[in-house]
Amino acid sequence: MTYEQVKTLKPTEFKRLCGVYPDTFKDMVTVLKAEKVWQKKTGRPSKLSTEDQLLST
Question: Would you state the pLDDT for residue 50?
Fold first, then answer.
């Protein structure tokens, strides 16, 4: 499932599927996006959004 499909779920269903509550997930995405700014850009751009990458880990 993509983040677009998952973000419409209720918080309890979101936690059951992803392992964390939506608020925690949003905090994790903010930290990840902040770190990506400092990351050296090599290779081709990713096809997945940051949220989808975080869901797959």
Answer: 92
Residue with tokens 């499932």, as numbered in its chain: 1
Query: Which two three-digit tokens encode residue 14?
Result: 């979101």
* Tokens linked to 40: 């050296």
20: nearest Cα among 48, 55, 50: 55
Q: Between 22-38 and 11-18, two packed helices, what is the crossing angle to 10 degrees? A: 60
Question: Is the pLDDT assigned to residue 37 strictly greater than 90?
Answer: no
Judge contact between 14 and 25, C-beta under 8 A.
yes
Collect all residues with Cβ–Cβ distance below 8 Å to 49 and sequence separation of at least 6. 3
The 8-class DSSP code of residue 27 comes to H
**Cβ atoms 4, 52 nearer than 8 A:** no
